[in-house]
Amino acid sequence: MYLVSACLVGVNCKYSGGNNETLWIKEWLKDKNCMLVCPEQKGNLPTPRPPAEWKDGKVIDKEGNDVTKSFMLGSKLTFEEALNKAKESGEHIELAILKANSPSCGSGTIYDGTFTGTQITGDGIFASMLKREGIPVVSELQETEVCR
Ligand code: SF4
């Protein structure tokens, strides 16, 4: 079973109300069992919502609100749901393809909390939960690694 950020297949769950549709992912998933995830919506955050970034161990949105609890809750619930779904289908989670740089889904790099597009080393909260369980995480920028 594969986990995929819902915004990457065209679901309008991005903070702006839009999506990050990525055609190679939609094509690659056609014959695969996948679960679409959006940890931020799962945490009851509205769409659209202000963009948010990690800063000093908290997730702060562009209006200055601390939204860490919602981010943590959404990722935890999504993670539990994914484990349950994998168990029910008798599969394990082989891979997660998650949106690059997101404070929830980012893997390897995230934005630095200045809302300037500056990237730093780190993982979003959902990606870090998966990695802790040994589940490989890639982003939409790693097509050659997934499709080789
Ligand atoms: Fe939802 Fe993750 Fe996409 Fe953000 S990056 S909109 S949390 S699926």
Task: Describe, in plain words, how this protein is organized in 3D.
- By secondary structure, the chain is α/β, with parallel strands linked by helices.
- The chain has five helices and eight strands; from the N terminus they run βαβαββαβββαβα.
- It has a four-stranded parallel sheet, with helices on one face. Strands 3-4 form a two-stranded antiparallel sheet.
- α3 (68-88) crosses α4.
- The longest helix is centred in the middle third of the chain and has 21 residues, at 68-88.
- Iron/sulfur cluster binds next to α2.
In short:
With 148 residues, this protein is of the alpha/beta class. The protein has helices at 23-28, 39-42, 68-88, 125-132, 143-147; strands at residues 2-5, 34-37, 52-55, 58-61, 95-98, 109-111, 119-121, 137-139.
Shape: globular
* Chain-averaged pLDDT: 97
**Quaternary status:** single chain
Tally of strands? 8
CA-to-CA gap between the ends? 18 Å
H/E series: EHEHEEHEEEHEH
Count of alpha and pi helical runs: 5
The residue fraction in helices comes out at 25-40%
Which stretches are poorly predicted, pLDDT < 50 over at least 5 residues? none
Structural class: alpha/beta
- Trace the largest sheet across and list its strands: 2-1-5-8
Rg from C-alpha positions?
14 Å
Instruction: Give the strand content.
Output: 15-25%
Ligand inventory reads: iron/sulfur cluster
Largest sheet: 4 strands, parallel
